[in-house]
From TrEMBL:
Residues 481-543 form the Pre-SET domain. One of its GO terms (molecular function) is double-stranded DNA binding. It holds the Pfam family SAD_SRA. InterPro entries: H3-K9-MeTrfase_plant, H3K9_HMTase_SUVAR3-9, Post-SET_dom, Pre-SET_dom, PUA-like_sf, SET_dom, SET_dom_sf, SRA-YDG_sf. GO terms for cellular component: chromosome, centromeric region; nucleus. It is found in: Chromosome, Centromere; Nucleus. PROSITE patterns: POST_SET (PS50868), PRE_SET (PS50867), SAM_MT43_SUVAR39_2 (PS51575), SET (PS50280), YDG (PS51015). Residues 251-403 form the YDG domain. It comes from Psophocarpus tetragonolobus. The lineage of its organism: Eukaryota, Viridiplantae, Streptophyta, Embryophyta, Tracheophyta. Residues 1-56, 75-164, 197-229 are annotated as: Disordered. Residues 546-694 form the SET domain. The keyword S-adenosyl-L-methionine applies. This is Histone-lysine N-methyltransferase, H3 lysine-9 specific SUVH4.
Amino acid sequence: MVAQSLDLVHQHSMVSTRSAEKNLESKVAVANGGDRAAAGRKSGELKGSPMPRRSSARIRALQKAEEEELLARKKAEEVEEKKKCQDEVTVVKGKKRRRKSGGEESVVAEEEAVTSPKKKPAACRKENGNEEPENGVSLAACSNGKVEENGKEESGNVGGGLGEKSDVLKVKETIRLFNKHYLQLVQEEEKRCGKAEAERKAAKNGSKKASKSKKGVLPEDSKNTAKRPDLKAISKMMQNNEILYPVKRIGDIPGIEVGYQFYSRAEMVAVGFHSHWLNGIDFMGQSYAKEYDYELPIAVAIVLSGMYEDDLDNAEEVVYTGQGGHNLTGDKRQIRDQKLERGNLALKNCSDQGLPVRVVRGHESSSSYTGKVYTYDGLYKVVHHWAEKGLSGFTVYKFRLKRLEGQPILTTNQVYFTNGRVPQSLTEIRGLVCEDITGGEEDIPIPVTNLVDDPPIPPTGFKYCKSNKVAKNVKLPLTVTGCKCKGICNDPTTCACALRNGSDFPYVSRDGGRLVEAKDIVFECGPECGCGPGCVNRTSQKGLRYRLEVFKTAKKGWAVRSWDFIPSGAPVCEYTGILGRTEDMDSVLENNYIFEIDCLQTIKGLGGRERRSQDGEVPANLLDKYDQSSESMPEFCIDAGSTGNIARFINHCCEPNLFVQCVLSTHHDLRLARVMLFAADNIPPLQELTYDYGYALDSVLDSNGKIKQMPCYCGASDCRKRLF
DNA sequence: CCAGGTCAGGTGTAT
DNA sequence: ACACCTGACCTGGGA
């Protein structure tokens, strides 16, 4: 019990004394108990205190984050929102809330119409947060986190005032939007290619085996390969007016701090940081003559990617080769003289007029889905320029750039981006206290490190279990019949499982399966399906894919990070434990590892989460079989207190990089859906993995009906300061 | 198997 | 009309 309560502490990111926390916890548990008693009496009518438990409220917070984002986007005046906070609190307590997805949802106009009456939480959060005193703390925590020991939070959000936070969030949202378009376009391409394949098969009628090898069919269809979904995604964003900063700017871009890492050139375009996905030099042409008095063109941003043979990079000082005369192929050769025009002229003008240029460095890196990372290294000034004969004997223009002073220090890490300090073997791991906490259950071992405690101790008091254990009084529904596909499912028009998902597979095959966007519910193929284990529609069933590590933090107890890059939409892990009845769980005081399966409530719009997909996505007959009582609150939950997997170590964060997704595969009972955690963003190695526990502020009441509060120390730049 | 080669791809800018 | 050079696939040489 003692060990367990120690474990508990980390889960809620608490910093104060343990005994205090423990007290708090028990009170909360009591509140839960009271609530449950009410429900147990014969629920349906939802009396007693409103639902304090974790999962039911989980995504509310995300919703708030998104709404805040929306708000910030539409209006700058957040301050006046404060007053409305009270109303929101009432709304929350009245338990009728809408949820926003784990971040995959776009911030589109129509969304606003739906949620606009409830845009207050943004301000609500601020007010409740009591910024002044706590902000300092969180900043400190934040920079601590940035020192990589705790896994860094987000390269771009180091310190900063209020306005800056929302800028960081804007950037984050824009990148998420980009990723969403990207995955949707990947899906389109995969579909198209699959169709082309099928047609070719049909054309060849009998000879199936021939079509299996790509070579045999290539000459016919050049469209066999996917076409730059990244470029398509930014085109789409331009059409939709979703580029964050569509007008070029001189100097820093709000929300992009020095050290910020882009994972592709297209991401820079999406943000408006660099408006070409191809050009090295982004400059303002004559069209900017009305706004600026400078001699145009002027350069605003350049990308150093080692493409030019004559480049020289000494970190603080760079010699950049102008554009032109390049043979445009992979061998990086100059084949012509460069001229003082376009980008070259723009850099010269910057030099003459003393204007700063944003510098981005491209690096080879395994920590990116493209194998490349682009780091913003700050503002530089062009101190000198000249023309000379380059290595290949042609005239090249050279620009000596010097980094402006007063900017964050360039670390070697940023200049020569490597995998951080990811250990290559067990012997390299510092503070190792357990080689594999899974005890061999998972395909990939999960080491545990502890550089905080003295002596270092591993986590105790639980048993690792990679899949759910079903409590005695819970009966899993019968296995449903599956699809008739053979081998792998690839035709969404015939695969029964795809049809349940709204006539599409929820996943793309790329990178071993990525969820295109957060959905109310994902139907995967199951044991009765005709397809094999390699089917993309079994993405969440394939076990761990990334090398995870449990590590001890100074303030938040245990935490989890990955040594590998995790692309957005990739499955990270399931949340497992004992699958039991919510009412039984509540009798276990102080158990803080309970995850309610609130999928049904979400879909019905009754719980804390907001709908993710459009109406009609979930087959109506699926919802019919549940009676009123099961709607009012989650009937089942997962208790990872004594038995669980890696997910039980993942901390809460108000600005998380994972989101929760319910998945059905063997049966179709929403109340017993599996709970999966997916990457909401592209996650670089060693960044702590977090998801939003989703308590709504002021939704937790103690036994006297008074609002309970618990501080949050996640350290995110827009932390709500309270877990509930 | 990996390194190097190949080529399509979309926008801004100048002609 | 064209420069811009990335990203992902393809190919061929080495292990």
